[in-house]
Write a structure and sequence with these properties.
Family (chains A, B): Belongs to the MoeA family.
Pfam families (chains A, B): MoCF_biosynth, MoeA_C, MoeA_N
Pathway (chains A, B): Cofactor biosynthesis; molybdopterin biosynthesis
Strand content of chain A: 25-35%
Helix content of chain A: 10-25%
Strand order of the largest sheet of chain A: 7-4-6-5-9-8
Number of domains of chain A: 4
CATH topology of the largest domain in chain A: Molybdenum Cofactor Biosythetic Enzyme, Chain A
GO molecular function, one term (chains A, B): metal ion binding
Oligomer: homodimer
Largest sheet of chain A: 6 strands, mixed
Radius of gyration of chain A: 31 Å
EC number (chains A, B): 2.10.1.1
Structural class of chain A: alpha/beta
CATH architecture of the largest domain in chain A: 3-Layer(aba) Sandwich
Number of strands of chain A: 28
Number of helices of chain A: 7
Distance between the termini of chain A: 35 Å
Largest interface: A-B, 102 and 102 residues
Chain lengths: 411, 411
């Protein structure tokens, strides 16, 4: 069955999946403080200007800039102090800064009418309570944040789909958005298959191992903002697997099968995936290492992945094909997926036409970032634990030599 | 008051704080699936070997390696198929792989006694049900994961203080740790000060602005794994601030004051911090931009920060001085804090002796990572929203020129 399919590149796999996935994430309103890490469900537009008034950025004096032109330390411009701006008060009702006049103003204070700049305290000398000398000229607009300079009224504040970071919470607070429309987290069903698997709390007998993938994938799904749900360990049996998969598909937005690296188990998984619905299996195998024996399917608009049984392989494929869907709802283009460039410590060979993913330890040496590969079989979860990131050897390269740069993403 | 203190470098500030902070985080047990992102409270040691038996990494035949020596496609080694390993079953009870014999074995199956290697299916030809020809030799250990090769019994699995990632959940599942001892999240009290501040849901009048910092800092604390708590907006009044700060200190492990960028407000905050307890204020000003007017204090072992009022400044200081404490409980040395090296798009000047932090947009161009500074005053939260990361100009440099590399950390 798998022989009918050619192995796909990561890009092709994404395009195939992207063309068939229909995501209709429901929306909920959450209180601003609970919105961190959530995905915005609509474009947000500012109603008011931020700040709502011209605002001083320094402690000093609000002045007419032209009254300071030519001022020097030896020949200060003398101004009459005729008022004071109080923090948080309306400075527009108590008069005007006239020609040759100055008002005291604190950092963050509202610029009074008539003034068009602020002179820093450091560049003034107080002659008496009523008179200052300005020792440096200012230009109109100096030391002021203009009305709407942070956020203009009517401006787009944050786009639909944006994942909210701490600064975004700050921005939404500034424009008065206290309830935020966000997408509900995608529900991810996780099924482990394999006659050899036992639960974490069980003691494995000879020939048995504890289920690693359910936990690692649960963690990856949660880290991507989704709501994972574990459907347990299923024996390599067509009927059992089909029933559990149908249940997971009914209850979730995306389903992961993992395990079944043996030919027999792979065949069962592939037959089940092809039985479920349309369009069914889209690809069978991706040209990466580790992670090749991956099955990608879409059933009634929902993605279903048959991930390899080896934990490292399953996690690499999750990272490449599942994480983007959970975080963004689709595959982004031109994303900076591997932002770190690090110097590789040893030669690593790869086959042309295949992307290789290396587990790497990262450290700093003389200001340079160094990537040291963690060697070991893809069945060893400990190699992922020892690593700080995942490095990529592109398909067009046959390897990367010691001392060359490699692209890395951090775990 | 501030004049008595010289501005500290980030490193000095960390050392001063680190020398006085006494952290005694309580510990709780959480179920493994809830442990993502939590900090491990003790060293964990493996009891059992993982895997608990020699395990095949391929579909094929379990053999004695020496029986395959010299095998080629034209002159295969012929072996009698005398058994089959079933997935998840004990292969140690049904006999031994004898000289000239082979057992069928699936990926993940238990190596039967007598065998010391696996021959991949691809390098065998089946002559009849009872006989195979091996067309390539294998060495002892080939295509096998040895008992304890992933995790040796008695080996340290994860160290105290480690922050649990998805792969770490997988590792703990593998060794049977279903309840994980983790530190309770640090409680962070957040107080905003300023006569100009109003709540998010209020409409600011002339001279008023909505409180941005409480929300941005709440987000940063939550992102660092802490449990933030907002203590509201306090007027610039000694008694009010002292009372609220005492309450926050009694209830939290770390307290943040933000706001009060005007000289008057700064003085109030500093006097309050010096009143609270011993040793009190440790530094007053750090030699960074933005973020200079930062007060660092420790009161009865708990850190208290007086952060600048400008949102960008407050967030930068939080990132440098608060995030490490919340994530790790102390300041790490030799950490890869700024892992991305990106080419700067324009000349950026800096003063020698001062670290400058730039907000930067990051993108990729011809395989290179490019950092484009987001210019704008530190009072503008929108500049943080437009940025993808924070770049650093070290204190010993007077700037970085267009085309040179700059160190960046991603938001």
């Amino acid at each position: 069955m798998g022989e009918l399919f050619q192995a796909r590149t990561v890009r092709e796999a994404r395009e195939l999946l992207g063309g068939h996935i229909k995501t209709t994430c429901p929306v909920e309103q959450v209180q601003l403080l609970k919105a961190l890490g959530r995905r915005l469900a609509q474009d947000l537009v500012a109603v008011d200007a931020v700040p709502g008034f011209d605002r001083s950025t320094m402690d000093g004096f609000a002045v007419r800039a032209r009254d300071t032109f030519g001022a020097t330390e030896s020949l200060p411009s003398y101004l009459d102090v005729t008022g004071e701006v109080l923090m948080g008060r309306d400075a527009g009702t108590a008069g005007v800064v006239g020609v040759g006049q100055a008002w005291r103003i604190p950092t963050g204070g509202m610029l009074p009418p008539g003034a068009d700049a602020v002179v820093m305290l450091e560049y003034t000398e107080e002659l008496d309570d009523m008179t200052i000398g300005v020792t440096r000229p200012v230009a109109p607009g100096d030391y002021i944040v203009r009305t709407g300079e942070d956020i203009a009224p009517g401006a787009g504040v944050l786009p639909r789909g944006h994942i909210l970071r701490p600064q975004d919470l700050g921005l939404l607070a500034a424009v008065g958005v206290d309830d935020v429309p966000v997408f509900m987290p995608a529900r991810v069903g996780i099924i482990s298959t394999g006659d050899e698997l036992v639960e974490t709390r069980e003691q494995p007998g000879p020939g048995q191992v504890r289920d690693i993938n359910s936990y690692a994938l649960y963690g990856q799904a949660a880290a991507a903002g989704a709501q994972p749900c574990i459907y347990g360990i299923i024996r390599d049996d067509f009927k059992l697997l089909l029933d559990r998969l149908r249940q997971a598909l009914a209850e979730c937005d995306l389903v992961l099968l993992s395990g079944g690296s043996s030919v027999g188990a792979r065949d069962v998984a592939a037959r089940v995936l092809d039985t479920l619905g349309s369009p069914g299996v889209l690809f069978h195998g991706i040209s990466i290492k580790p992670g090749k024996p991956t099955v990608g399917a879409v059933v009634d608009g929902k993605p279903v992945f048959g991930l390899p049984g080896h934990p490292v392989s399953a996690m690499v494929v999750f990272d490449l094909l599942v994480t983007p869907l959970l975080k963004y709802g689709f595959y982004l283009r031109d994303q900076l997926e591997f932002p770190v460039r690090a110097r590789l410590t040893r030669n690593m060979r790869s086959a042309a036409g295949r992307e290789d993913y290396l587990r790497v330890r990262l450290y700093q040496e003389n200001g340079e970032v160094i990537a040291d590969p963690v060697l070991g079989k893809s069945g060893l979860i400990s190699t992922m634990v020892q690593a700080d990131g995942l490095a990529r050897i592109p398909a067009e390269k046959e390897g990367i030599e010691a001392g060359e740069n490699i692209e890395v993403k951090l775990f």
